[in-house]
Amino acid sequence: MISKKSVETLMLVVVVVTMASLASGQTHKEYRFTVKPGSSVSLVNPYGPISLKSAAANAVVITAILHSDKVEVDQMQHGNRIDITSHLLPGADAESGQVEYEVTVPADAAVYMRTSTGPLKAEKMRGDVTMEGTTASVDVHDITNAHVHVKTLSGPVMLTNIKGGHVDVQPVSGDVTLTTVTGPNVQVTSSSGKIIYNGDFGIGGAYSLVSHTGDIEAAAPPEASIDVEAESAKGTVDSDFSLVPRHTSLPVRLGSTFAGTMNKALSVVKLNSFSGKIHLRKAPKPAY
Do 39 and 109 touch, CB atoms closer than 8 A? Predict the structure, then answer.
């Protein structure tokens, strides 16, 4: 049996939380939509985070926390398509116009998310995921057999455990880290950000890691089966592996290019930078 004192304490906590929410000007809202397989969701949020997860249901559920009365949520359903937009009112700024979104969708839904400040997060999806941000950080993990498209200005990008899909990451200056990312086509194209790849490059994939001025570091286990080319016009290239040499169209310059194969060369890997350093290194053995 709950004591009278415990009940009074619980009521006090509820009152304090409610008063804090009111004092901060925050408003909580929830939106539910019934959809069929193959639905699509578009969510545009000028300021604030968006977190996406999959759920085993035919519903799209969106929870929004509005930080002030200077922003509204416009929501609309057109058949199997859901559109959500944070509508900034006169006088709104990056703080008062902020909305925090938590989104659950069917795993096969195609989702487009855009925010300036972020962060952007997505996990456990099988549908295509497109994410765009300015300074927003991006964290995508546990995605299977789906296209993942990421565009950022300066926010860091982390992709983890992405399998069987097409991956296209286009940052301007943010660093990109890919861990256990495999698929038929994996492409990262950056202007100045660093690119880090940790994985075995899978089987039968094409991997292109390009940074104009940023460094590229790719770590693979000795059993990786790759055909690799690396070139840095003004930087240096280095490999920890004894690659089997092969003919290449790259101009051969000691310390600036290399090309060769490992094992059965089942995946093609191209590493390219104009002035950054490129290092193909051996991945450390896992600790058991």
Answer: yes
